[in-house]
Amino acid sequence: MPGSLPEFLLEQLKKIDSTAEYSGRLPKIQSSTGAAYFVKFGSSSETEQYVGEAQSLEAICAAAPGLAPKVLSYGKDGEGRPYFISEYKDIGGLSGNAANVLAKRLSTELHRYQSQRGFGFDVPTFCGATRQKMGGFRLGNNATTV
């Protein structure tokens, strides 16, 4: 797939499945084994955003397996540009029953899970390109921003 997938990303995909051939255009890459991957490659100024996204998805997967795409690889290339590879989930509209199942999983599994690191993340998180204000909370009746 010359020209459409940077060599660095191809190397990372080969670490996931060395037997496959890869095709497609970012962000959706298809393997010859039938797997599909969501692949992002950014600029060095987006590194925090990529790390926050990866760690957020890892936390969701730990709390509610299968609910979010599994992160397969993330980091930086030799020039400091971030990359991110996860399962590709083809998500369309939900039927009423599927929406109810999703709502139940979100309200029970995610809120029942207790991270060993406490509430929040130790890396910045983003809403789109907007960096969210960092802060933590103590548990109990007097929850305050730390």
UniProtKB/TrEMBL annotation:
It is an enzyme of class 2 (transferase). It comes from the Eukaryota. It catalyses: N(6)-D-ribulosyl-L-lysyl-[protein] + ATP = N(6)-(3-O-phospho-D-ribulosyl)-L-lysyl-[protein] + ADP + H(+). One of its GO terms (molecular function) is protein-ribulosamine 3-kinase activity. Its EC number is 2.7.1.172. Pfam families: Fructosamin_kin. This is protein-ribulosamine 3-kinase. It comes from Leucocoprinus birnbaumii.
